[in-house]
């Protein structure tokens, strides 16, 4: 029976992916510094095995045959994700993938060196090589999938997302934000004049911050028997659903950034820990995609963790662990601080989308051949000035050299961040309707009802629906920027 | 070229073994408790992949063909280890291995339950099943390797070791120890009467013990850029040569047991860290076997770590980290404490070999069919009385239910422990000749010359020689119990 063969294949791939996930998390947290070369060799060999097994030619026949078999609804859904996965995996010829991997890895290495020095001229030829291959890749994916080239790239990260649907929503959000950011900053200024900011600085022992983090993780639903918190240079959520590894980094002079980071990664972790167990070894059992994943992390960080109601419960918890007694009037201005800046990863929830929309617009033009890499510094600067009133023309490290995404050929990924923020706000709107006392629940440290809501509508669905379908099924309507705008207005516009 | 095919196979197997080693170490140190089931599934699937790839039928042809190719000396040695490895891997039919794995795993599970209760009657049928299959296994291995059945089992752990050579050496050691143990205990008693033991008890913070352990590891040669120390329930040395994971467990009321454990595991680690890099992905590049590995751990623990000269240097280091000032007369009686006991893993270096020789004798009879499992409690008790003057007849958990080795079908492994102790002493004799001021070096914290000696003669040789060949090449003579006896007499007999 062909379905059985695919099911067994799923177990083999799952074993390799389990190893890759744990080896990857281990590398960032516990590996000895000298272990990197052998680790890279081992992981690349394991990834090669996983790819060869998942992309073997006979699998196409198994999928065709399985579709004719007498399957239940879940199995049919599993087959359709096996097919989507297989097509996305096999639509590029092996020699192209090898060429692209080499080009991309050289560009990433060069980027690490050149970014620090702001050496755009030294970096440009490598980036040009990556873009040229990304255009080829988009073309090949487009033909295999029957999609437009940029859509075919996005399809890897968020199945079902299409520029035709996203671009107008982003356009709408952009015009809103270009006016809203200065207003929010003005409101913040007025408030600060009346109520000056009490600095959060102090000395917060790492071990106490860690205990606070673990207490918050557990409170919002992280299952500590199936996951852990450790330290890494860049925070991440990795591992496997039965053993989710989240990390943070601590500063001893300030606790809020680490705590918010832990809540963000906890949001990712909740999605992983609550995926359907029975489908764990099928593509169907994975989280839907990057935008949905980011919506879950941003929900915990922004809709829960920066919600004033949450802080009514959280302040005494912070005080208990850190021994410092803040009032709501002192903590909330930090939690809701807005600031124009050059760096996306440092941006707050008000300015962040403009960083993403800028990249979304530029990378569409790059893939379409309407923009060349050499023209990026000017194009970036022009949009940065128009959207945030800042210039990057003299500091390419703050402009097109800022992120690893382009050097590593991840075109089509950036939209996921802001789609995630919008989906999180849209979820919040739906939850406010279904659970009218949700804020009161947060204020008393109750997160079960909200987690049940998300488990039923999102987490338990795995990859059963496309991203737009899942948004609509979970929230009752298609992606709608109105919820995110309403959220920003309520929190920052008054 | 067939050698090339074997070389590439080596890289693939190495990647899987790398993953298995890190996943195994991770499981004991950092895995979330709920991660065990998925981890076991993933590891068993990866082990299956490694086995299928390493045991594929075409490999026999590659090895035959490679032997006819124009190879250098290293490559010829590599082929001969590829063949040894292949024959040992493939000499049991797959259906037998499956049956044995099931039987063994059931017996191990039962052992974990039954041991605590001392439930020999409940455990016996499962052990009988394992022994029956071990006899079959020994017969099949014997036919494939042209060896006697018990020798064929030992061959898995220590290639080249033969009962005909080991049994007389053990017999010699046993008669020595049966007299020596009471003498050593008498001498100890007399000394204690003159110089009462000052207890080592106190409160030693785990973090300080850890720093002391790391300082000692680094001093005796552990490369901290290619390995680490963490905590696990059972101490072990795992990981890969570029990232060796050693573990310990700490008691806060006593520091010596953890420190000695760390030195023991560091001995294993030094062997791994200093294996020949260029051969890392061939069977030739692995450590020679269990006896040689144990000889390296026991060398660091017993020949270095319990050497009075070492303590001249180590005492101030301990004082610096733990803040407690011991004199040599206070610490050495603890370092050299001898005590008759029922439990092998708790035994000191004087009594330990009698525990091993007892098991070596019994398991030979078990495999030969001269002894049945049902008769083990009586047979064990009789030997225990004769060798150590202790009885286990009423506590089978202290007798034949003591170790995991038999439930897990590892017959032929026990001799390695005492062979390791003898090889370590024999190495020490050879080193004393080659480095006459070795004790003075230890007393000033110098371990480089001893490590260079071991690196050249043992670590860098990988699996190039059989165990007896390696012993003779490294120390200038075949295995000889005289060195170990001399060592015990010098340390405990005066």
From TrEMBL, chains A, B:
> Which InterPro entries does the entry mention?
Peptidase_M32_Taq (IPR001333)
What keywords sit in the KW lines? Answer: Carboxypeptidase, Hydrolase, Metal-binding, Metalloprotease, Protease
Q: What's the superkingdom here?
A: Bacteria
Q: Which GO terms describe its molecular function?
A: carboxypeptidase activity
UniProt-listed Enzyme Commission number(s): 3.4.17.19
Q: Return the broad EC class.
A: hydrolase
Q: Extract the Pfam families matched here.
A: Peptidase_M32 (PF02074)
Show the catalytic activity. Release of a C-terminal amino acid with broad specificity, except for -Pro
* Key word ATP-binding present: no
Q: What does this protein do?
A: Broad specificity carboxypetidase that releases amino acids sequentially from the C-terminus, including neutral, aromatic, polar and basic residues.
Q: Which family does it belong to?
A: Belongs to the peptidase M32 family.
Q: What is this protein called?
A: Metal-dependent carboxypeptidase
Its source organism is: Nitratireductor aquimarinus
